[in-house]
Amino acid sequence: MNIDKHNIKTLLDENNRDMVGEFLSQLYEESLYSNEAKLHLMFLQSALNLLSVQPLESLLNTRTELTITLNGHPRTKRYELVKPLKVPPIYELRYAMNQNEHLRFLFFPFLHKGESNYVFVKYFKKTLNPKVDETNIMRDLTYEMYKRVCLDPEYYLEGTD
């Protein structure tokens, strides 16, 4: 099966919250009056768009270059965009907001009815100062949601757009 497009989906988590969707909606609202928020949103949209059209394997263990244009000025970031999290099939989509704050969006690939989906469940901010890293907790919660989706994919993946 040759799949050239992956659906990006967000999911209600174990607390019935769409963490990723809520974060992106809030960032969108902020982007209406903040250039900094607009910059972050444009980079995240670019990253999600790239993820939707590239094979996941091509983004692993490699530095990806993203370029956006904000107010007529091109901006480029080059970094490891996607990283596996030691508990297959959980991955993180990575984005640095600044030197201290690093966003992590946790997701898993899921094939359903012949369609490839990247299902986003959790997001968190990793900071260097103070050192905050919820990677393992959020990875494990995302894995629990993955197991729920495996048991009842129709419930989680259909009619949630």
What does this molecule look like?
By secondary structure, the chain is an alpha+beta fold. 36% of the residues lie in helices and 33% in strands. The protein is built from 5 helices and 7 strands. It has a 5-stranded mixed beta sheet, sandwiched between helices. Strand 5 (91-96) and strand 6 form a beta hairpin. Helix 1 (19-31) packs across helix 2 (35-53). The radius of gyration is 16 Å and the shape is globular. The two termini are 24 Å apart. The mean pLDDT is 93.
Roughly what is the average pLDDT, rounded to an integer?
Answer: 93
Query: Could you spell the SSE succession in H and E letters?
Result: EHHHEEEEEEHH
| Low-confidence parts | none
Quaternary state of this entry equals: single chain
Biggest sheet features: 5 strands, mixed
In angstroms, what is the radius of gyration?
16 Å
Overall, the morphology is globular
Structural class: alpha+beta
Distance between the termini: 24 Å
Characteristics:
alpha+beta; two-stranded antiparallel sheet; 5-stranded mixed sheet; 161 residues; 5 helices
How is the topology of this model organized?
Blueprint: E1 6-10, H1 19-31, H2 35-53, H3 56-59, E2 64-70, E3 73-79, E4 82-84, E5 91-96, E6 101-112, E7 115-127, H4 135-151, H5 153-157
Parallel strand pairs: 1-7
Antiparallel strand pairs: 2-3, 4-5, 5-6, 6-7
